[in-house]
Amino acid sequence: MDWEQYQKHKPFAGEKKPSMLRRRIGHDYASRCIYLITLTVEGRRPLLGKLVGNADAPNDSADAPRVELTPLGERVWERWMATERLYPQIQAVKLQIMPDHLHGILFVKEQLGCHLGQVIKGFKAGCNKAYRELVLGVSSAATWSQQREQGGKRDRSLDDREHGQLWALGFNDHILSGRGELANWNRYLQENPRRLAIKRAYPGYFRVRFDIHVAQQTYAAIGNRFLLQHPYKVQVQLSRSLNENQIKEETERYLALAHGGAILVSPAISKGEQAVMRAVLDAHLPLIFLTPWGFNAFSKPGHRYYEACAEGKLLLLAPWPHQNERISLTRQMCLDLNGMTKALCEFV
Which of 8, 109, 166, 256 would bridge 131 by S-S if both were Cys, CB 3.0 to 4.6 A apart? Predict the structure, then answer.
């Protein structure tokens, strides 16, 4: 949908709800571009593989976390790689299959004759066929429909939420837009099994909570909630006008406080505050981070926060609801975040 169509239909669309499945308005999904695609199994069933290995094992060891594919997972892999044969304009750059979802990077090298959504639709159809054969034990969609109808009546024993479909509706896409982003995507895919292993080893630190009440404010939270009960918490608030030397001095001062037992609390708004947060994480010291970007039930920490969460050294707090679009922080939002940070430091 282009901008003209979007503006024309917007008054009739009703309230916009958060969704990870929308396409970017105005983007040509047949044009030359690189995409990160995510598909989830209907019902989040672990049909594609089994996680094995140790969360603490080095990447180059035999015990490093990895996903052993099921026969269905292997067929999904084959179908994804077949995209290059079916669409010579596309290169399958990287694929990571997890037990209940997959992440894949596709490079559209030249103009497609169709929307990228049609490519994904064809891939899903091929996977659905393999799913019906290997999991449901039927050879075709027609056979599946026939088995669900017995004597003109629906056989409820075969009536489940999957309806012969492996994948949940839609797909999520990210469009490459910045330098270094592709390297981050590749690292994200490579580290996915380890993140899952860490999450399973420390489930309490990765479960999203939406009922954290502090000083008349309700937060969504990921991480070690017991950090809130620490009696010595220090607010990190630095002016945007600080130069590099001043930021370095302030970072060292805050690190000394953290080494002395303080829990640093920060929304990391200014450049200096962001420098302090990075230094604290690098030093494996405890931190409470207020983020303006809300969480949903499936939210998880970014790659550099995973280890901190597993160590119990990080608490992420989101005071506002989840939304897909990144919005620019207003002055009032910054003031509100600083006020919440102060209230958190006073809370025992």
Answer: 166
Q: Which helix (H) or strand (E) holds 317?
A: strand 314-318
Between strands 314-318 and 287-290, the pairing is: parallel
Cα separation, 193 vs 341, in Å, equals: 34
Selection from 284, 242, 264 nearest residue 345 by Cα? 264
- In tens, the pLDDT along 251-275 reads 999 999 999 889 999 999 999 999 9
Q: Where are the alpha helices (DSSP H) in 88-138?
A: 116-131
Point out which residues pair with 219 in neighbouring strands: 212
Do 98 and 192 form a contact (C-beta atoms < 8 A)?
yes
- Residues linked to residue 95 through DSSP beta bridges, in sequence order: 104
Tokens linked to 132: 């019906």
Q: Which two tokens stand for residue 254?
A: 């805050």
For residue 275, what are its two tokens? 């420098």
DSSP letter, residue 268: -
Give how far Cα 14 sits from Cα of 9, 22, 37, 251, Å.
Answer: 10, 15, 27, 47
Confidence of residue 154 (pLDDT cuts 50, 70, 90): very low
Q: Which residues make beta-bridge pairs with 105?
A: 36, 94
Q: Is the dihedral of CA 67, 70, 71, 76 positive or negative?
A: negative
* Terminal-to-terminal C-alpha distance of the chain: 51
E strands of 76-152, at which residues? 90-97, 101-108, 149-150
pTM of the model: 0.67
Contact indicator for 61, 140 with CB cutoff of 8 Å: no
Residue 344's contacts (CB-CB under 8 Å, 6 or more residues apart) are 214, 215, 228, 233, 265, 288, 290, 317
Using CB atoms within 10 Å of the CB of residue 117, give its burial: 0 to 12 exposed, 13 to 18 middle, 19+ buried.
Answer: middle
Joined together, the tokens standing for residue 316 give: 């992420």
